[in-house]
Write a structure and sequence with these properties.
Layout: H1 7-31, E1 41-44, H2 46-59, H3 64-73, E2 77-80, H4 95-128
Antiparallel strand pairs: 1-2
Helix pairs in contact: 1-3, 1-4, 2-3
């Protein structure tokens, strides 16, 4: 989305992308619950996103552009859980944990959709007043 809409919409858009990736990875874990030797995976992005935004804010207090670039440059990380395994076949997918993660991610995704919807509705309302 264009920078002219501000960092809030850019941030929401990026988080939606990350949540979509997280959901895809969780669903892949569930699909492989019976695959011998399969190791569960997970996506992380929150810490890197927070650090990049914080660093950009400190470096350029008045620059909205640097925060926008920090948001755009943030990448997610795919991690594999190698150490944990509670089954004899080497598979370590925990269905209870995966189901909780799927539901939690769905709620977070819905919350972010509502957030971006509200932002766009406010912009539309402001544009109508001109």
């Amino acid at each position: 989305m264009s920078e002219m809409y501000g960092n809030g919409i850019a941030l929401t858009e990026k988080v939606l992308d990350f949540l979509w990736q997280r959901q895809t990875v969780s669903l892949n874990n569930v699909a492989n619950v019976d695959t011998p030797g399969f190791k569960s995976q997970y996506i992380t992005f929150e810490e890197e996103l927070g650090k990049r935004i914080s660093d950009a804010g400190k470096a350029h207090r008045s620059s909205r552009r640097s925060v926008y670039e920090a948001i755009g440059d943030t990448r997610s990380w795919l991690n594999t859980t190698w150490d944990e395994s509670s089954r004899l076949d080497g598979n370590n997918v925990d269905m209870d944990q995966e189901q909780v993660e799927i539901v939690r991610t769905a709620y977070e995704y819905q919350y972010m959709l509502n957030s971006i919807n509200n932002d766009i509705n406010r912009l539309k309302s402001a544009a109508r007043n001109f």
